[in-house]
């Protein structure tokens, strides 16, 4: 069977990497081609991830770039449709919840091509979040659902999905995390860009921020930066800045105080080497909530809700929203050693990709494709 794997934005790359590694290692009756939509295009948002995560160059690059949601989604759809019509794959595999995920699943489904969604079933129930819309629409039309945590099964069943199409397999992003942690152990500490920062600050916190709800409103963003400034008087902070956040800081005339060290977006290995030794992570990312849980690092999430509740129930994650007072209070608690400890969720064991591919080979053999 022939299938297309789709990736578009930074958080997709660490999810497709282990699947492709497993395809190259295993003997699955599956042939794949890789499509990069080009939703993220900066070297540090895309190319460095392909290099470090050992992802082969894409077979197709759609080169869509930035734009409004409609513009970006539409461009991916038009260009992806051409490829699907030419290639007639048996299946399209999409991962995560970015605009590229949504765009490609719609195109495939309307051409009668089966869709497998990796990281299906997650729900924040916050419809102001673009990713929540992407998740709901993608799952509404997918054929096979690969689920990272049990809440995903409950959500999909509640939405009427058949039990037999839902597969609880664990998390491909955690497969990748463990693979990279192992690689990291062979690299000398001084080969990292942040080596100097780490040497000067034996105890530090790491910040990431990019969600529209936190960075698109001047008052909210200013409040968060104020809170971070206060935290940084007790714990040195380092903040790799996403392009969207960087642009807004400039636009709103805000300033990051000198007590917070800022950097450009970091590569996967650079970021991993930084947060794995952090005392505390403050973030609004989805994936980082999970990676900190997998490594047992305290995480303060600057959101009111999460589509990944296992990180709060079993892991090290705490939701604090964007209220400066709560951010500072939770950071202080963590500094006193009162942060959540947590355990590793079920099936986050580095073998999710193998489970997914074995399942896919099996269902495609059994059920065939629409066209066959
Ligand atoms: C996207 C995903 C989000 C994910 C995030 C991680 C959607 C709806 N959102 O959000 O789920 O967590 O990626 O980064 O798909 N830009 C650059 N260079 C790039 C890419 C973007 O400068 O390589 C700038 C552009 O000004 C662009 C803005 O960042 O307009 C936002 O990019 P976009 O892809 O629209 O969404 P993200 O905020 O990155």
From TrEMBL:
Q: Which family does it belong to?
A: Belongs to the UDP-N-acetylglucosamine 2-epimerase family.
**A Pfam family the protein falls into:** Epimerase_2
Please indicate which superkingdom the organism of origin belongs to: Bacteria
Into which EC class is this enzyme placed? isomerase
All copies of the UDP-N-acetylglucosamine 2-epimerase domain together span: 29-360
Identify this protein by name.
Answer: UDP-N-acetylglucosamine 2-epimerase
Q: Could you tell me the keywords of this UniProt record?
A: Isomerase
Q: SUPFAM superfamilies from the xrefs?
A: UDP-Glycosyltransferase/glycogen phosphorylase
Q: Which GO terms describe its molecular function?
A: UDP-N-acetylglucosamine 2-epimerase activity
Which Enzyme Commission numbers does its entry carry? 5.1.3.14
- Note whether Isomerase occurs among the keywords: yes
């Amino acid at each position: 069977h022939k299938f297309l794997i789709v990736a578009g934005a930074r958080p997709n790359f660490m999810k497709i990497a282990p699947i492709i590694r497993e395809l190259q290692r295993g003997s699955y009756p599956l042939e794949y081609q890789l499509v990069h939509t080009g939703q993220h295009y900066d070297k540090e948002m895309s190319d460095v991830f392909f290099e470090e995560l050992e992802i082969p160059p894409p077979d197709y690059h759609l080169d869509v770039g930035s734009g409004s949601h409609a513009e970006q989604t539409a461009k991916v759809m038009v260009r992806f449709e051409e490829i699907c019509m030419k290639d007639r794959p048996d299946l399209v595999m999409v991962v995560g919840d970015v605009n590229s995920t949504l765009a490609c699943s719609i195109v495939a489904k309307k051409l009668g091509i089966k869709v497998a969604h990796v990281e299906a079933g997650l729900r924040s129930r916050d419809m102001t979040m673009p990713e929540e819309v992407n998740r709901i629409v993608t799952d509404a039309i997918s054929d096979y659902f690969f689920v990272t945590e049990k809440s995903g099964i409950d959500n999909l069943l509640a939405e009427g999905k058949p039990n037999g199409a839902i597969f609880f397999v664990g998390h491909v992003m955690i497969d990748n995390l463990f693979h990279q942690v192992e690689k990291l152990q062979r690299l000398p500490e001084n080969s990292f860009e942040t080596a100097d920062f780490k040497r000067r600050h034996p105890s530090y916190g790491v910040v990431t921020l990019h969600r529209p709800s936190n960075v698109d409103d001047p008052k909210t963003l200013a409040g968060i930066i104020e809170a971070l400034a206060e935290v940084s008087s007790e714990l040195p902070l380092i903040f790799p800045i996403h392009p969207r956040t960087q642009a807004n800081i400039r636009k709103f005339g805000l300033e990051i105080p000198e007590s917070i060290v800022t950097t450009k977006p970091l590569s996967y290995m650079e970021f991993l080497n930084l947060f794995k030794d952090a005392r505390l992570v403050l973030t609004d990312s989805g994936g980082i909530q999970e990676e900190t849980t997998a490594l047992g690092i305290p995480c303060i999430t600057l959101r009111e809700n999460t589509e990944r509740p296992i990180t709060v129930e079993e892991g090290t994650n705490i939701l604090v929203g964007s209220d400066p007072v709560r951010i500072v209070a939770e950071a202080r608690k963590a500094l006193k050693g009162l942060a959540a400890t947590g355990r590793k969720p079920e099936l986050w064991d580095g073998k999710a990709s193998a489970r997914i591919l074995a399942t896919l080979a099996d269902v495609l053999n059994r059920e065939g494709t629409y066209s066959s």
